[in-house]
Automatic annotation (TrEMBL):
Source taxonomy: Bacteria, Bacillati, Actinomycetota, Actinomycetes, Jiangellales
Keyword terms of this UniProt record: DNA-binding, Transcription, Transcription regulation
Gene3D superfamilies attached to this UniProt entry: Periplasmic binding protein-like II, Winged helix-like DNA-binding domain superfamily/Winged helix DNA-binding domain
GO cellular component: protein-DNA complex
Species per Swiss-Prot/TrEMBL record: Jiangella rhizosphaerae
Gene Ontology molecular function: DNA binding; DNA-binding transcription factor activity
Similarity comment: family membership: Belongs to the LysR transcriptional regulatory family.
UniProt name for this protein: LysR family transcriptional regulator
Stretches assigned to the HTH lysR-type domain: 25-82
Length: 326
């Protein structure tokens, strides 16, 4: 066994397919062999390794016995590699290099500097909050791989639970015993109106002024938090919404508004999506805001995820500051 970073390490070398070999080889034996093979002198190799020469000689003998191959030819004056020894030297160098890479990769992952994050997000998160988070995170942790998936809130929760996502960005998270969550942004809701709507010419609209309008909504099955938030906001404004159609696709809902089929209510970040025939108007009603949450498994915290959440908090604070001024 070899002490690598203060830990005892054992390596098992697997034989060539078809050739039975059940011995064990220690990492230190590989390192000792490489030193002898490069120096071709036991005395110099022992000095290089800061090891007594008899102990080095015994280690090489044990290695040869373990693999059943003569690696060195020794005389009283010379040490030479056998043909098998030359092949073994090349493989030992590769093996030791790979062990070093593996240790460094594990250490970087422990520090949150390497690994893979699978990130889910609702469409509205991609308009304002998510892009600067990704830019900052990639700049700070360039060795971490990112996989991004646009999914509904319901799909993200299921994927986080199944460990198909490391973290999700969802609207109005409604809680789950196996998940942790954190509110990142609490932004205003805005009315989306056809350009010829009576309230389209005003700077702000009151939610109560939409009581008689047909309301177009997202499917509750896909976005329950957002659906329930809009409905509860309407009830707080004194009316029951007249929901005439639900759609799973945000562009479809906005397209129907532009076509004069009704109105809808969305987070303010949707204003980055410009479509002819409709306008966005802030709502004057108090309390018409909606949250964007990060969600992850309670048992899924890693250094990589912690690093990402740290960056997300920093940039969410800047977005909250801008949102408060609206």
């Amino acid at each position: 066994m070899d002490r690598l970073g203060g830990r005892m390490v054992m390596a098992r070398i697997v034989g060539v397919p078809g050739e039975a070999w059940n011995g064990r080889v220690e990492l230190r034996q590989l390192r000792y062999f490489v030193a002898v093979a490069e120096e071709l002198h036991f005395g110099r190799a022992a000095a290089r390794l800061q090891l007594a020469q008899p102990a080095l000689s015994q280690s090489i003998i044990s290695l040869e016995r373990a693999i059943g191959v003569q690696l060195l030819r020794r005389t009283t004056r010379t040490v030479e590699l056998t043909a098998a020894g030359r092949v073994f030297l090349d493989e030992c160098r590769r093996a030791l290099l790979q062990v070093g890479v593996a240790v460094q990769s594990a250490q970087r992952a422990e520090r949150g500097e390497a690994g893979l994050l699978r990130i889910g997000y609702v469409v509205s998160a991609s308009y304002e909050i998510l892009p600067p988070i990704l830019v900052a995170y990639r700049r700070r942790h360039p060795a971490v791989g990112l996989q991004l998936m646009s999914r509904s809130a319901t799909e993200q929760v299921a994927m986080v639970l199944d460990e198909a996502l490391s973290v999700g960005f969802v609207r109005e998270f409604q809680g789950n015993d196996e998940l942790d969550s954190e509110l990142l942004v609490d932004e205003p809701l805005v009315a989306v109106l056809p350009v010829d709507h009576p309230a389209a010419g005003r700077q702000k609209a009151r939610l109560s002024s939409l009581a008689d309008d047909a309301l177009l909504m997202f499917d509750r099955d896909r976005a329950p938090g957002m659906y329930d938030k809009v409905v509860s906001s309407c009830l707080d404004a004194g009316f029951t919404p007249h929901i005439v159609q639900q759609s799973s696709d945000v562009q479809s809902v906005l397209g129907l508004v532009a076509g004069g089929m009704g109105v809808t209510v969305v987070p303010a970040s949707f204003r980055h999506l410009s479509i002819d025939g409709l306008v966005y108007r802030p709502l004057a009603d108090v309390g018409t805001r909606i949250g964007l949450y990060a969600v992850w498994r309670k048992d899924g915290r890693t250094s990589v995820l912690d690093g990402f959440l740290e960056v997300a908090r920093e940039h969410a604070g800047a977005v909250r500051g801008r949102s408060a001024k609206r």
